[in-house]
Amino acid sequence: MSTLQDLYKLPLDQHKVLVANRGEIAIRIMRACAKLGLPFCAIYTAEDAASGHVRHAREHGGEKSLYRVSSYHDANELMSVADMAECTAVHPGYGFFAEDFRFARRVTKRDRKMIFIGPSWKIIRELGDKINTKRLARSLGVPTVPGSDRPIYDEVEAERIARSVFDFQEQQGIKRPLVLVKASAGGGGMGIEEVYDIDMFRSVYRRIRNYALRQFKDEGVLIEQRITDFNHLEVQIVSDRSGQHPVHFGTRNCSIQSTGLQKRIEVAPGFAPHNISYSFNAEKVLVDIVHYSLTMARKVGYDNVGTWEWIVTRNGEPFLMEVNTRIQVENGVSARISTVNNEGGVDLIAEQIRTGLGQPLGYGQEAIAFDGVGIEYRLIAEDPDNRFTPWVGRIERFSWQEQPWLTMLTHVPTDEPYEIPTEFDPNLALAIVWGKNLDEARARGREFLDGLVLEGRNAAGDSLKSNVNFLRANTERILRF
Amino acid sequence: MIDISKLLDEIKASPYREIVISTPHTGVVTFGELREGDTVVGPQGQWKEKPGTRLATLERERNPKPILAPEKGEICRIHKELEGRFVEAGTPLMILRHMLTRAEVEHAILKKALHLFRAPERAKYYFIPEVEKKIRAADAHSVQVRDGMELLIMSRMKREVPLNYSGPDGVIYAIYFTINENMDAGAPLLGVCPQDQLPAIQDVIMRVQTEWTERG
Amino acid sequence: MDNNIEKRLQSLKDRLSYARDIFAGKHDDNLSMLEEKLAEFNARASMGEMQDPYADIVSLEDLFSYVESRLEGLITPMDKVRIVRHPQRICLRDILENVYDNFTEVGGQDEHSLDPSMLIARAVITRRRGKKTHTQSVMIIGQEKGHGAEFRNGGSVKPWGNAKAQQYMRVAETEGIPIHAYIFTPGSYPVEDYPGAAQQIARNIYCMAGLRVPVIAVISEGGSGGAEAIGLADKRLMLSHGYYSVISPEGAAAIEGHLKAGERATPELIEHCAEHLHITAQDNLQFGYIDRIIQEPPLGARPNHFDFFRQLRQEIIRATDEVVIQSRGLPGFRKLALARLRRPDINLDETHIRWGLSSGNKDRLVERRQQKYLHFAREAALDKRPFLTKNAAALRDWLSKPWVHLKYDFYRKHQRRIKSMVEEVGGEIDLIKARLFSPWRKIARLPAKKTEAAELTSLSTWVDDQRRSKWNYLSPRYKIDRTLTCPNSATYGCLDLWGPDLFAEFAGVCSHCGYHFPMEPEWYVKNVFDVDSVYEFNAEIEAGNPLNFPGFDERVAQAKAKTGVKSGCMTFEARIDGMKIVVAMLMGTFRGGSVGAAEGYKFVEAAERAAKKRYPFLAYVHGTAGIRIQEGTHGVIQMPRCTVAVRRYVQAGGLYMVLYDTNSFAGPVASFLGCSPYQFAVRSSNIGFAGPGVIKETTGMDIPPKYHRSYRALSRGHIQGIWDRRQIRANLKQALLTIGGRNLYYR
């Protein structure tokens, strides 16, 4: 039985990585492993047998590199396969177990220990708790959404705070102030309600408190300002296991979203002060949020990749929203505009694996430079005109024109029809477009979308619905506040 | 109306169903003393509270779990070569030859006699809460359905859409879907018996009760 | 042959077959000899060969009597069990007809009864003193076996039958007439239909613990819970051929032999258990659990034993008289009267003592009854407290009593009055202050805005974050790297749980469906109560083997070694958010949490401590399988005994709460636990009277799965709520604050 420290000392090529995910991200992880010369093992479920990641594993994996499991959600399956395939590390990708500190803890604490490729479980737990994160930010002078930073259990106190959040907004000249009441133990949009009138507060408060008690066994409630007019920015952080020298890979703007607040277009960098004029000092905002993010990362000893999510108001005030302790879908768009020691082709997932397995990062912030603008489109089978309802069916044709400025990431095969599985989000592909400036990037984006072929049919014979038109229409809006 | 005698004769001609027992998840499989040709039983007792014969044991993460026979039957194939080996989820372990019970024959014939309400798309289905409550309190027969009535919820891609019933008015006679399991597009979800055909359906059941003898 | 001879011959045949039945194949030589003689007589009589058939039949009868009295000396405990179960055994209706002078059945007639196995009647006894006759009324309550009539269900009473009994106990109390309870039951019918077997027996026992009329019990067949349901009496008489036991010998043999459902114990094992359970009248008289034995004719009383009925009548009158006399009058007179009653030559039909009691007498009656039970079975537990400690405790109690009285009964009462006065005055002053300062207030409020804004954007102080604190105790099972399958996984699709998560952070709760895996008793002690607030007392009272049950010493020693505790009941004082509380915890880890003399002793002491200190009293039942059968009646007597202690505590104003966890069954639930008005259960627990195996065995019924789940007990009204394990502390606190109002001790 080896300890975790022993595992960190192993040479890279003696590791084997369990790819505990599916679809596009699984493929990217396998590619990154190949790049680092690491063997891997992939998993799939019965419904997902036609996914491109299964084919990729079959074609590029070695011995013991693909197993069928009952569910991606069953940690026991992942542990069982990892032991069988003799893996030394687990890469969770995003979604599933990526931000599950218990899973990370189990991977590193079980009898046959493995490396969890992601921050240490304690950091996941600490930053996964929104109260903790908010209090940590405030203790470092990092701006957070105005409101309470601890669970409120007392009705009278709750009402007093709600009142002052209303007053606070009025003082700032906000015309329709809103207060958000949320279960402090909740997450994922559950147990959140808006209040626009203080007289409604008590009934909403009680409703949320009762819900929280039922659902989370904790009746604590958070009361915050609800900010409506904002841009969604994020800062990409990378750090090695020392946790001492986190660096950033710039900012992204993810403001173009579906009605369900799911990202659809991500752009790096976060603002373009040279091309677009803003009502605030956009350059300073970017510098500030990077600085704040690094400050927090240093404070907690952050030891892998992560994203600090920010909301920036029309007045140019940034507020920390949350920290995503994982690799994100849109990491590629940051990598696309980055160079390390003047070399392009940065692969953040490879960097995540390499540092995650214990290698030092090997360079500092000064080695990282940025060039141009990257746009990432998320191609999804859905109907944007009808509340982004997912479309299910069979994809018959899927092709695009290869370009030096285009990176396509997809698990959907282009040489045979593909049945979209109903168990997962109907993401089809990520298209990353690069241009030397905003105008060029936008033009290339449109060019790509115009040349894209995406056709299919469902059981009823209706043709495929996708968000291509939505993406095209929104390309113009990119980086405008 | 359907020709029950003919259907019964058809079923009598091959009164068996093959049940493939496969692993629910990964793990190391061990078989007991069972051999091909042995007879096993499914859950027994008034409430099916006594579990069926243990067919194999699947151990994962130091948690040995029995795989139990779902029905009575004869083992006609057993993959003994897997003994002591690690298997993937969904690996076939054995095949049971199960002689149809009266209830199953009834079920099969009813499926032809009833109006079937089918799944419009591959998704998971469940009843709307009011109907669910009714079924739980009494049974499915107590639920009257009308054309256009909101009856089910279709769940897929993490979204839930209400689904209206379409077809003749009647009572729900059979439920073919199980919670948390995907139903393919076109798979029957419900068997509905129109009010005026109830006597005819009762007759079908009577016929099966009298003409089908359970053996083995 | 004339009719008379024929009848007498028939009677001899009955006696013979009866003897064969009760000896179950033993003493065959004697009985065969009788059979031969009988056949010989028969043959001769039918041939008309006899000159004086009357003389011959008398000598044959004498021979029968001779053999019967010889066999009488050889009767084993198991033979007695067969005697009381025999259809020829006297039953309650025989007693009503032969012992009482007149009666009216009030609990139904024959099969037209709520429960034909429970018979209730108003009866009278007429006594003569000189020329004057006195008619005295009594309430008769008892199980009716009806000589094997099927609808009587063998005297196995259903929950509603016991409820009927309770109803008429109350009637007797209202009318001020004594109760004569006749116990003819192998045990209660263990179904959980409303009101539930255990729940109703508990109510009966609780009721009898405070009943304000004399209660006399006569035991023929005293089968555990069923017997206790009407057996808590001022005087308990027992028929010499009866038995009084915690469990049927067959049941004990099934447990001792570790038999599975459907398997049969060997006759030898059953005989062995019957012997070592010490179930006879003589045993129980020696233990002190009965007051007197009524001698039956050889081989047990049958309906034609009229002398026996006359004797029973004398005994029951004497017992009632004694109880009445002991409850009233001057001590000197009492002694005299009692001495007169006990004279052997007295004919009680020709004396008269009024059975009515004054209010003060009734207080004395109840106090005497309660004290009688509280003193039972103390010697059956191993009390290893040093002599001085035991007595020092008593001395301290004696010294502190006046102080406690002063503190709670006097000071607290007046303190409340003073406090409310201060509050009123304070309110007035606030009002005046508000008026005086109102002009300034508006000005003073303005600068406050800035600090409010700061509160919204900078770090606040957070003091009550212990709500999110971790567990103080983790189950040692968390150290094992393995997964566990939730029992509900087939229904709810729960994924396997990783042991280290489940037994630490999850507190043994399935994160998907909420199923509660059992946890160790320590988990509750350390996680429910304030850290370091637990103070255990009476740990030195140890479980023993009072009946010297073969092989049981080793098993008790093993349990002690395995668990590190000395009995299945831990009693301690603790605090919840500063509120003091006395807790008695029955631990399922120590011999299944069964209750014997030591456990009962500690429970009683805990209740008394709670009463003395004016603390709320919580019975936390981590698990109990019932009464510890190897202690026999020393165990079963804990049912009424602990209930008496609980009743005294509640009557004195205490808040008694019960919290069930894992599995709680049988005697304890059917007495001192089930009588609490505030019973709660932890999720996934089972509550009931008898387990599925026993129900199948006794009633022949298959019971559905989940029959004993706590939510069914909740629907039935047995328990008042179901708690999540992780919420026990918060819920207990809330219960103490809301159920325990001003009038409870801890305020």
Could you explain the architecture of this structure?
The complex is a heterotrimer of chains A (481), B (216) and C (747). Chain A is α+β, with helices and mostly antiparallel strands. Helices cover 32% and strands 24% of the residues of chain A. The radius of gyration of chain A is 23 Å and the shape is globular. With 216 residues, chain B is of the alpha+beta class. Chain B contains four helices and 16 strands. The model of chain B has no long low-confidence stretch (mean pLDDT 88). Chain B folds into two domains: 14-99, Beta Barrel (OB fold (Dihydrolipoamide Acetyltransferase, E2P)); 103-211, OB fold (Dihydrolipoamide Acetyltransferase, E2P). A four-stranded antiparallel β-sheet of chain B has the order 1-8-6-3, with no helix packed on it. A four-stranded antiparallel β-sheet of chain B has the order 5-4-2-7, with no helix packed on it. In chain B, strands 9-16-14-11 form a four-stranded antiparallel β-sheet, with helices on one face. Chain B is 21% helix and 38% strand. Chain C folds into four domains: 3-74; 85-374, 2-enoyl-CoA Hydratase, Chain A, domain 1 (Alpha-Beta Complex); 476-517, no CATH class; 519-738, 2-enoyl-CoA Hydratase, Chain A, domain 1, CATH 3.90.226. Chain C contains 27 helices and 20 strands. In chain C, the strands form five sheets. Chain C has a seven-stranded mixed β-sheet, with helices on both faces. Chain C has a seven-stranded mixed β-sheet with strand order 11-13-14-15-16-18-20. Chain C has a two-stranded antiparallel sheet with strand order 8-12. In chain C, α1 (3-23) packs parallel to α3 and α21 (597-613) packs parallel to α23. The interface between A and B is medium-sized, with 25 and 22 residues.
Task: Provide key terms for this protein.
heterotrimer; B: 216 residues; alpha+beta; OB fold (Dihydrolipoamide Acetyltransferase, E2P); four-stranded antiparallel β-sheet; C: 747 residues; alpha/beta; 2-enoyl-CoA Hydratase, Chain A, domain 1; 4 domains
